[in-house]
Give the backbone structure.
Amino acid sequence: MCGIVGCIVAKGNVAPIIFECLKRLEYRGYDSAGIATIHEGRILVRKDAGKLSEIDAKLDLKGLPGSIGIGHTRWATHGAPSQANAHPHLDGSGTIAVVHNGIIENFMELKRELLELGHTFRSKTDTEVVAHLIQEMMKKGMDILTATAETLRKVKGSYSLAIIHTGTPDRVILARNESPLIIGIGEGFMFAASDAAAFLPYTDKAVYLENGEVAVLKIDEYKIFKIDDLRSVNRSHVVLKWTVEEAQKAGFPHYTLKEIYEQAQTVREALRLQLTYVDLVVELLDRGRDVFLLGAGTSYHACLAGSYIFSKLARLSAYPVIASEFVENYGSSIGVDTVILAVSQSGETIDVLNALEYARLRAATILGLTNVVGSTLTRISRAYVLQNSGPEIGVAATKTFTSQLTALMFLALRLARKRGKVSQAEMDALQEDLSNLPSLVNKVVKDSEPIVKEIAKQLSNAELLLFLGRGISYATALEGRLKVMELSYIPCIAYPAGESKHGPISIIEEGQPVFFVAPRDETRRYIIGNVMEMKARGARAIITCERDDDELQGLADISIPMPPTNPLLSPILYTIPYQLLAYYLALERGNDPDKPRNLAKSVTVL
Ligand code: F6R
């Protein structure tokens, strides 16, 4: 996710202020940080891997001279946390410095072109390419604003950027596409930051940049332009009523709700995987004789859904396995032909690492899907893919789950293509479904919230909740159950709907709420039977199904309508109402949804 800051002060040095701003953005990323200022016609940079205060203790970030500067606190996506990969990044001449939040999708291509022109790079980041491209444009005689706009017309992906140049030491150039960027107008101070929390102690006057805009910030004015044609945009400021904490939560009452809402963007970022690494992982998966998808908790549910996706799309049998059960269950058959794709948001879950260590000693190939570069999982994996969700602060996994599913879908699709298992037409249709996914996610969050809020009111005193799904929706039922249970503390059970007749049906009595996950797929006609069986015994059926599925809507005591979607993508969309239900049940029952009792974000005990 990363946090960026740009600042100009009328008097004194800017670095101590940028440092304070960055501290308030550390929740957006904290694996490296840095500040650059302009002083006596030169750019000065101090940056390193580590936490902001540690870097300051070592390098005296606050001691940088100069009245204009930019700063960054990082959550690594391209290149591990290191001094070289920390922002700000410089161009080849050392006169342009850039900080960036987002992902430049086509940076490899751009880097290749720049290498041919003789540029050399110091980092593995996508950001450095932006600094060098601006330099290239300026060589052609463009000013810094025009050069930035011209550069961004070549760039694909998401960004918020703050840029300084020694030739114009009175201004910070800003730009935004998909990643947030807000200008703050103070008396004797001008700011730009990823969120207003950074500058709220100095000013409550804010101007929001929109996608596709570039801006010039000076001590006494700001000017906004369209990147496309540099036509100017008039936008006046708004007065924020937020506290710093509210701003960090983007106005949401809890991080969990903010993170549920963020999913349209995080799913989009999860589709921006680096193809080089994706293809390496795919190549190694393809070579395995026994392939396992291994994870714990929510990440295990992603593995379970992933196993259906790999099987259906790429005809790969990938066995989902709970990390803590792996050694006992499969340990004796692990060998050089075994490939394990470990899915772990933190990359530090001890059950996962233990299983991998065991497998590694037996020469198995270890692959990873994680959200944290530099985590143990990234260090022990032969190849890994980053899901790009940014830090997740709510203890319960929400946005990181839907990103894991998106990344697994992406991997399965690449493998299917490599194996020649999907036709051109299927491939095109799936690509289109994937590109529509972020807007569908947005729609589901918004449309289901009021319905689910009402359900939470009705069920706040429930003693037991049951979740049923078939096929890939069994994974959704398990994840729905886990989310609701861990945030509401209501005992919950999840079963494959087909198994419900083999035991769970005995607990059904008049009014027992049963959630059915019922997308329109080949299991639908069977789940209709399961709904009828449960209803005949008095169950209250709460069915998540397509909005025009009249038959299931007719059977439902309460229905949660969903947009039509490819069944393989249904866990991404159908999990969202259960995340919201978990959140609102927690509120109804007086629980803190961000910090459920007895749970830790990263479980490092066996
Ligand atoms: C549930 C949850 C946990 C984690 C589990 C694995 O909401 O967050 O079940 O999914 O502890 O964590 P990672 O993915 O970091 O290995």
Q: What stands out?
A: The mean pLDDT is 95. The longest strand covers residues 96-104. The domain at 252-422 is CATH 3.40.50.10490 (Rossmann fold).
